Amino acid sequence: MAKKVPVQFTLNGEERAEFVESGATLLKALRERHGDTSPKGGCHQGTCGACSVMVDGDLVLSCLTLAETCEGRDVSTAAGLSQDGVMHPLQRAFLDGFAAQCGFCTPGMLMAAKALLDENPNPSREDVVEAISGNICRCTGYEPIIQAVLSAARANSHVAA
Ligand code: FES
Ligand code: FES
PROSITE patterns recorded for this chain (predicted)? Predict the structure, then answer.
């Protein structure tokens, strides 16, 4: 039986403490121990991006990240994007721009887009294409997603102006 190790971290701003199996992925811990099913398990081998979350502000693939390495760190997921029932501008733009169909890739896309906009609030189309290049979508053809990210960036710069 796998050894259990204690892991404490913040998840979308809330303190969390849990025993996880040594060697378990962050994806598994989030979904099975913390009830956060927003990161999706697509390929489980680092190629689809559906499991993308942020750890200490960096975009990571939670299927390739060990839960125990998140001790003391700050984990954020798509489930934490909306605040007090108000959608994040990226979520609003995805909804308004029909950028989600089956939605399986959407949480990972949102986190990749958030990581981009945190770093670069005024990205070019090429910046967006590069930022989401690790995320596979089987439904949308990518164009609505690219346009949604650009639209959210424009909306944010309008708010900031
Ligand atoms: S499930 Fe992690 S990259 Fe596909
Ligand atoms: S909306 Fe279905 S995989 Fe992207």
Answer: 2FE2S_FER_1, 2FE2S_FER_2
Last residue of a domain, one of 48, 76, 104: 76
- Relative to the alpha carbon of 141, which ligand is closest? 2
**Residue 39 neighbours by CB distance under 10 Å:** 26
Q: Which atom of ligand 1 is nearest to the CA of 61?
A: 2
Residues in the chain: 161
> Which band of pLDDT confidence, cut at 50, 70 and 90, is reported for residue 145?
very high
Please tell me whether the overall predicted TM-score, pTM, comes out greater than 0.85 for this model. yes
Number of domains in the chain: 2
Q: 44 CB under 6 A from ligand 1?
A: yes
Q: What angle do CA 61, 154, 83 make, to 5 degrees?
A: 55
> What does the pLDDT average to over 68-74?
98
Q: Are residues 20 and 66 in the same domain?
A: yes
Ligand 2 proximal residues by C-beta, below 6 Å: 100-106, 137-140
